[in-house]
Amino acid sequence: MNRRFPVDRLTGATLAPTSDLLSVEEPLLVLVNQKPFATLMRTPGDDPALVEGFLFAESLVSQPSEILSMRASDHPTSQEMHVEIPISQAAQLPAVRSIYLSSSCGVCGRTSIEDLLDRISPIPPLAIDPQILTTLPAKLAAAQQQFPATGGVHAAARFNAAGALMDLAEDVGRHNALDKLIGRAFRAGQLPLQNQILVMTSRASFDIVQKAAMAGLPVVATLGAASSLAADLAARAGLALHCFVRAQGLVTIRSNP
After folding, report:
1. What is the pLDDT of residues 115-140, one digit of tens each?
2. Is 130-252 in CATH node 3.30.530.20?
3. Per the residue annotation, which of 105, 107, 143, 229 is the catalytic one?
4. Which single residue of 93, 97, 134, 158 has CA 20 to 30 Å from 32?
5. pLDDT tier at 87, thresholds 50, 70, 90
């Protein structure tokens, strides 16, 4: 989703008024069993998949049947998603849990990251020819729809081991794009996503690796750099991490630095 804004564009020595498309960023309040749980700053569109992927990554649900109902608010001045899950799952919610997630933050508001690490099981390795990985950024870019119009969104895509595109999602937030991607697979009963490759236009941050590991993705390839915590988590989960992926080459993070 995009909106057009008036801008002044400087080209060489000429300053001229014109207009430009900007990617929309708006808040979505997620309520679980009628209680506020998180506010997600996201690009509107495919909100159910975003919420499903987010709740899966938060370990509130493990299969689609555990989402008893989901409905968007019809209030004209608010954007809300109301989710009902079994009481046993809802019992995992702290007494007070209202997380604000900006479009650049995947695990903001957490009191500890150890609980994330404890939820991740080892992932069976997937051997991939590095030459295949170097072809994926171009395939991802060719499939993007929002980025060519605004330059203001990230993309998350999954490919099979042969390098064929399986699915792609875009959002102003890198973690939102990944939640949408995982949410669709979650809804279709396709998790874990073994034998597939995740490609992100972003850097490899802790939240990206955590969500990939939760979804069972054995290979993560990013156009940007990796953080040290992301590298540590990838090694612990048995996940292959490749960064600065370009047609000319890539950097593979070793499991034992």
Report:
1. 666 777 778 899 999 999 999 999 99
2. no
3. 105
4. 158
5. confident
Coil vs helix vs strand at 27: strand
Q: Supply the DSSP symbol for 257.
A: -
Identify the pLDDT of residue 236. Answer: 83
What type of residue is 146? Q
User: pLDDT digit string (tens) for 19-60?
Assistant: 878 888 888 999 999 998 888 889 888 999 999 999 998 888
What the block records as the tokens of 14 is 């000429």
Tokens 């979505």, residue located? 28
108 is catalytic: no
Domain residue extents for the chain: 26-117, 130-252
Q: Give residue 221's identity as a one-letter amino acid code.
A: A
So what CATH class is 26-117?
alpha beta
For residue 44, give both structure tokens: 């509107």
**Whole-structure pTM value:** 0.86
Cβ neighbours of residue 30 closer than 8 Å, sequence gap 6 or more:
36, 37, 38, 39, 40, 51, 54, 55, 80, 81, 83
- Please state whether beta strands 35-42 and 69-72 pair in parallel, antiparallel, or not at all (unpaired): unpaired
